[in-house]
């Protein structure tokens, strides 16, 4: 799932390549992706794209005061397209959800971008609204993970008896962090994903804060370096534990382990994070019985 660094990099890419251009047409290929009906998608045609920004993991395209807001969900992505086909796409075929055509710059081919979603579980959501706060998921967002200082993070965690992993990924507490970067942040902070959020010592809180900043800004810098040609998918480099079950931890060499849940999993290093003790994993113990 695209998280804060990926979505911020997409917004930056669109600020450089699409802002200032006029939307000529929007094609909807996946009917279930659109969550609003007023204003209609057709209201965007003929208006200039005036801004691109991010709210948590939501991408917000300001089209002269009408906002096209996108949540890429698990497997959604934005593909920049040179020489877009003019024929309308066939609805319900393939990964295409929405196509935005932009007025070509002088002497250039018509370009624009596709919103796509792989897989059968469709979660990509598109909203056309007068204000981003009309999108329920945006209205509920906590403060942005990159706009907090250590003190504010401490205040946010005070009184929360929930586990760190769930707390960091709860968008109503803190906006922008998902499954991948929460694994990375907790590993860098040398904290157990199951530790209670309100049980951190001052030293642990500072470690968590610094790990959060370094992990997110490092990932953002790597993402920003990507050019149009490489804006192909959600390629993440430099992951230490996330999606690395069974591989050695780059810090200590211990084997990265996993805890599975109904529809997700987390990865961690026992030596770095849990005093060498593996966390209980119901699925694993069932398999081993
Ligand atoms: Zn380790």
Automatic annotation (TrEMBL):
Gene3D superfamilies: 1.10.8.50, MutM-like, N-terminal
Family listed: Belongs to the FPG family.
Annotated GO MF terms: 8-oxo-7,8-dihydroguanine DNA N-glycosylase activity; damaged DNA binding; DNA-(apurinic or apyrimidinic site) endonuclease activity; lyase activity; zinc ion binding
Catalytic activity: Hydrolysis of DNA containing ring-opened 7-methylguanine residues, releasing 2,6-diamino-4-hydroxy-5-(N-methyl)formamidopyrimidine
Record's protein name: Fpg/Nei family DNA glycosylase
Domain of life: Bacteria
Domain Formamidopyrimidine-DNA glycosylase catalytic: 2-119
GO biological process: base-excision repair
Domain FPG-type: 240-274
Required co-factors: Zn(2+)
Keywords per UniProt: DNA damage, DNA repair, DNA-binding, Glycosidase, Hydrolase, Lyase, Metal-binding, Multifunctional enzyme, Zinc, Zinc-finger
